[in-house]
Design a protein that fits this description.
- The protein is mainly β and 247 residues long.
- The protein is built from 2 helices and 15 strands.
Length: 247
């Protein structure tokens, strides 16, 4: 092999002297030939330099790690050199928090707006449709605007809607009209009695409208004689409609 001395020694390099002779006892630069194991084994000095261009078999860059990870038994690797850990190996296989959550929950297989919940039969976390049973204080489906003190809510078959308070609240009551599908505010009636004819004195031969059981009663004025009028009431009594004079 070719050896080039870095400085002159007692015995000049003749280009053929073996390792161990006097010309090897100082600094040398090894040329382009290959160093054999025999040369290294018999050389006693550490003052040999090898140009990096003449070295083969190493990584192309000092930043390239060619270590087989299966051979690592201790120590710590920089985070950038750690491989992606799959779900089967206890990782998520993802590079970001959101992607990790998506991978671990398998959200790609769930329908839109489903919720992650514990399944009763399997006790596993599964995606299911959200419950349609609203809490007592859940008013998200209330279609109202301009709420005011005293307003009332009722269900119209689709949503909860607002019934505004009465414009003249004194004496009004909440009721359902006949065949109505929604409540309304109406003035309170004067009781369960309907007048027969308001302000008219009937003849002494007048026959009043019959009362209805548990429904209607009538009050009317009828002539008794030339000197007297009488106040009468028709009501349900003893199983039938009866006319009773009250004045």
């Amino acid at each position: 092999m070719a050896i080039t001395h870095t400085k002159v020694v007692t015995v000049p390099d003749d280009g053929t002297s073996p390792v161990g002779t006097d010309e090897w006892n100082d600094d040398h630069t090894i040329g382009t030939n290959t160093i054999t194991d025999t040369m290294i084994g018999t050389h006693t000095t550490t003052k040999i330099t090898v140009p990096h261009t003449n070295i083969t078999g190493l990584a192309t860059s000092a930043t390239t790690d060619t270590t087989d990870a299966s051979n690592i038994t201790s120590g710590a690797l920089p985070i950038g050199q750690l491989p992606t850990v799959t779900i089967a190996k206890g990782g998520s296989g993802a590079a970001t928090q959101q992607a990790a959550i998506n991978a671990l929950t398998a959200v790609s297989g769930a329908a839109n707006e489903y919720v992650l919940t514990k399944d009763t039969s399997s006790s596993n976390a599964v995606w299911k449709a959200a419950s349609t049973v609203a809490a007592f204080d859940d008013l998200t489906d209330v279609s109202v605007s301009g709420q005011a003190t005293g307003d009332t809510l009722y269900f119209n078959g689709t949503n909860w809607v607002k019934l505004a308070k009465p414009t003249t609240p004194a004496g009004e009551v909440l009721t359902f009209a006949t065949s109505a599908s929604a409540p309304s505010w109406v003035a309170a009636s004067g009781g369960g009695m309907a007048p027969e004819i308001d302000g008219t004195v009937q003849a002494d031969t007048y026959t009043p409208t019959a009362a209805t059981q548990n429904a209607t009663a009538y009050m009317f004025v009828r002539k008794i004689d030339t000197n007297n009028d009488g106040l009468f009431i028709t009501l349900w009594k003893n199983g039938s409609s009866q006319v009773v004079q009250i004045a």
